[in-house]
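> forwarded from #structure-qc
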């Protein structure tokens, strides 16, 4: 790095007084008038004139209309969020808030959507950073200037892309300070915007906005379902990639598996939707094992829980438990088949009109039956379920909503989510598991250190359900044949 390594960006408030701020250990003492003048001129006009609206423009407009109808007469403020420092002067990759991306399709930092009440509804305005300024040198002297981090869309271009009026976000905070009337803001993403509204909002009212936007995502539209299928299809290919290189993972570590899947996610999507769990051997018994620094050994199992996130932020969430050498041992197959049977029962319970809890209860019953059958817990099964005794080995719930967050709709009311009823268009995971910890003295030694989870992404349809991740085999014999074909 050179210039941006030596000069920090000026804030919008002090640009006119101090457009260039030197860094402590910069190599250049400053910028000469001649260089500054040179950098101002000689640049071609790069405005884009043939832009089409984003693919989900109709859907984001409908979502904003639903939001407007829910909160008539109130100003609604939904920020994208700001860059977060990773270390010193480097930032984490930016991911816009789900609420903001859901309503706009935009993904750039510092953006804010404002719905201002007008007669008959709301006027939506998208507030964004304009292109970095060439006149004051921002575009090459600022650490976030275009020569350092890439070109931004102009405000005019953004209007074409997102189908709403666009204004300069640097003017928004002052405008919000002067705003009158009821206001709600989605909290936790932009401290500057929240500070401008501090005397106009309440936590209770803001939470109502957050809850509404979470519940709005419970039922997916056709665009969202298509994106989730894309995410799953890429994830299937990522699992295939991993199977093909298991020999290399054995020579290195779980990190090879993580890296292999990440390559697919970055080539075909935006990123992974969450930290990949590449848990080999007893690590499979740690539910969120993301260190991925352990050994990969022939004869043990690999629990791979991973999902590709699309460029529009929709993520898959799929788990397969694979025999590293391609063949299940007798005890591994016994445990795996029990989890498979539980998942089958869970998936069969997913249908419109069913209680959300039904698929969890169905899967847990099968696992409890197996645990009693194997003599690991004293029956009858009804007693085991009533006391939750199976949870020593099943540990977690059997699924969750899926969408732009891997655990989507998390702020929804309990009565709308876990105590609610399934509807066509909902997408959820079904993921039972059995986990026998390596130090669990209540089970025979042969069980210890074996963890199995099978997870698929299930769309509720008008007729029942559709397994979006059916491209990956689930039955134990099919898994072995699939792995043999890929390795062969």
């Amino acid at each position: 790095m050179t210039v941006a390594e030596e000069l920090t960006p000026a804030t919008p408030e002090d640009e006119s007084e101090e457009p260039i701020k030197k860094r402590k250990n910069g190599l250049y003492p400053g910028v000469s008038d001649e260089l500054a003048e040179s950098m101002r001129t000689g640049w071609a006009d790069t405005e884009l004139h043939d832009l089409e609206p984003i693919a989900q423009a109709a859907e984001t407009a409908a979502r904003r209309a639903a939001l407007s109808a829910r909160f008539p007469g109130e100003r609604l403020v939904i920020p994208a969020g700001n860059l977060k420092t990773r270390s010193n002067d480097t930032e984490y990759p930016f991911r816009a808030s789900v609420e903001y991306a859901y309503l706009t399709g935009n993904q750039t930092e510092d953006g804010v959507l404002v719905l201002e009440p007008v007669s008959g509804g709301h006027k939506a305005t998208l507030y964004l950073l304009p292109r970095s300024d060439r006149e004051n040198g921002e575009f090459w002297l600022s650490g976030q200037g275009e020569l350092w981090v890439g070109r931004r869309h102009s405000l005019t271009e953004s209007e074409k892309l997102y189908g709403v009026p666009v204004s300069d976000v640097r003017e928004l905070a002052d405008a919000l300070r002067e705003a009158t009337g009821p206001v709600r803001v989605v909290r936790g993403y932009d401290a500057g915007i929240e500070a401008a509204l501090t005397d106009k909002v309440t936590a209770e009212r803001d939470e109502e906005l957050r809850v509404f936007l979470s519940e709005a995502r419970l039922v997916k539209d056709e665009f969202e379902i298509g994106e989730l299928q894309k995410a799953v299809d890429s994830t299937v290919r990522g699992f295939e990639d991993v199977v093909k290189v298991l020999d290399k993972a054995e020579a290195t570590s779980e990190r090879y598996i993580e890296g292999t899947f990440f390559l697919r996610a970055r080539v075909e999507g935006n990123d992974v939707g969450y930290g990949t769990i590449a848990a080999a051997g007893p690590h499979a018994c740690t539910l969120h094992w993301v260190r991925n620094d352990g050994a990969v050994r022939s004869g043990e199992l690999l629990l791979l829980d991973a999902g590709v996130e699309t460029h529009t932020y929709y993520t898959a969430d799929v788990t397969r438990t694979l025999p590293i050498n391609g063949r299940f041992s007798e005890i591994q197959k016994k445990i795996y088949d029990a989890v498979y049977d539980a998942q089958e029962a869970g998936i069969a319970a997913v249908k419109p009109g069913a209680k959300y809890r039904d698929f969890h209860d169905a899967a847990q019953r099968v696992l409890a039956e197996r645990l009693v059958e194997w003599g690991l817990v004293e029956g009858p099964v009804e007693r085991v379920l009533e006391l939750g005794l199976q949870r020593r080995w099943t540990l977690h719930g059997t699924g969750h909503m899926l969408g732009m967050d891997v655990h989507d709709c998390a702020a929804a009311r309990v009565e709308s989510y876990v105590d609610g009823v399934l509807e066509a268009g909902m997408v959820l995971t079904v993921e039972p598991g059995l986990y026998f910890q390596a130090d669990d003295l209540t089970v025979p030694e042969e069980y210890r250190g074996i963890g199995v989870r099978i997870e698929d992404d299930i769309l509720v349809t008008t007729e029942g359900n559709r397994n979006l991740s059916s491209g990956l085999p689930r039955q134990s014999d099919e898994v072995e044949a699939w792995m043999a074909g890929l390795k062969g």
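QC bot note: The mean pLDDT is 95. Residues 457 and 468 are 6 Å apart (CA to CA).
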